[in-house]
Write a structure and sequence with these properties.
The chain is an alpha/beta fold. The strands form two sheets. Strands 1-7-6-5-4-2-3 form a seven-stranded mixed beta sheet, sandwiched between helices. The longest helix is centred in the C-terminal third of the chain and has 22 residues.
Length: 354
């Protein structure tokens, strides 16, 4: 009953088999291998566009390198106040951009709103050159609140950003989960809606350690290869990154994995709702934010369930923990078993009936 994060899951067996196969023999180094070439070609097909791809091993590297392509050291990145780039990257975006400032906004449901971004960009800039210059907008898909941006919402925000000269970055650590939930095409959720650079996550959804920086306008990727090398994120045995993505993307495996995680989240959320627990935020990907009675929380932890208590400013207006309740985050993964969900609900149900 480990619902602490989708990072706790291992890798898909198909991905592991591909890694073992790629380990045999020798291939050209630094991403010049056949696996990486196939991945680049497949991503062009998936996104229906010519693009540039840079594989890295971590989401932190993907986000930081992506933002560095869009934002100068004297720039500002506009993002949600609880975005991963602002809260959980240990200053990596600031470091890789050479000192750019991250400006967070407290949008409800974990999402930025067009109104707050438009108002910020329309406000007087102060006394140049004393202030940073807004240079990039970063959207998290799915958000840290487990919600997703629709293509129309992305397009509206991207249009505002573009009118003020900002590039648009998408942190897609849970990109596949959002895509499966929305049922739209990868192109519609990214470049067609105005996204310039995507951090395409795979580690949370079945890879061992594999992320990609995808730049939809190749001109914007002019020096990203040098940034990746200088930052220490160009793997010499690049085929081991390529092999993971090769298996991950083949035959829609990445979408199947995300669909499993989302289905497990739906099952868990529905079961908790039947027990009378209040689900605090819409379940739109594979994260559940729910108020548990304190006694239920204690019983679940005593039974070995793992998950995190949560503090967030993204709750809908008027929604808050009641007396004797605790807000928690539960995250499902591609390998979350129905038995684990059912056991969790049985323990919770036993406490609810007590």
């Amino acid at each position: 009953m480990n619902f602490a994060s989708d990072n706790v899951a291992g890798a898909s067996p198909r991905v592991m088999e591909a890694l073992v196969a790629a380990n045999a023999g020798s291939q050209r180094a630094y991403g010049a291998d056949d696996h990486t070439a196939r991945v680049e070609a497949r991503l062009k097909e998936i996104f229906e566009r010519d693009l540039s791809v840079f594989l890295v091993a971590t989401g932190t590297a993907a986000n930081a390198l992506a933002l560095a392509t869009l934002c100068p050291p004297w720039g500002a990145v506009l993002c949600h106040a609880e975005a991963h780039v602002a809260e959980d990257e240990c200053g990596a975006p600031e470091f890789f951009t050479g000192g750019a400032k991250l400006v967070g906004f407290p949008g409800r449901l974990g999402k930025l709103t067009a109104e707050e971004i438009a108002a910020h960009l329309a406000a007087p800039t102060g006394r140049p050159p004393h202030q940073v210059i807004p240079s990039a907008l970063s959207l998290t898909q799915a958000s840290e609140a487990g919600t997703v941006y629709t293509p129309d919402e992305i397009a509206t925000l991207a249009d505002i950003a573009r009118r003020h000269g900002l590039g648009v970055h998408m942190d897609g650590a849970r990109f596949a989960n959002a895509l499966v939930r929305l049922g739209v095409s990868p192109a519609d959720m990214t470049w067609r809606a105005g996204v310039d650079v995507l951090s395409f996550g795979a580690t949370k959804n079945g890879c061992l350690a594999a992320e990609a920086v995808i730049v939809f306008d190749r001109d914007k990727a002019a020096h990203l290869a040098q940034r990746r090398k200088r930052g220490g994120h160009l793997l010499s045995k690049g085929r081991l990154l390529g092999a993971q993505f090769d298996a991950y993307l083949a035959d829609g495996h990445w979408l199947d994995l995300a669909a499993r995680a989302n289905a497990a989240a739906d099952r868990l959320a529905a079961g908790l709702a039947r027990l009378g627990c209040r689900v605090a935020l819409p379940v739109e990907a594979n994260e559940i934010f729910v108020f548990l009675p304190q006694a239920m929380d204690e019983a679940l932890r005593a039974a070995g369930a793992l998950y995190h208590p949560w503090v967030t400013s993204s709750l809908p207006e008027g929604v808050a923990a009641g007396e004797g309740e605790v807000l928690v985050r539960l995250v499902t993964a591609f390998d979350t078993a129905e038995a684990a969900v059912d056991r969790f609900l049985a323990v919770a149900g036993g406490q609810a009936a007590a």
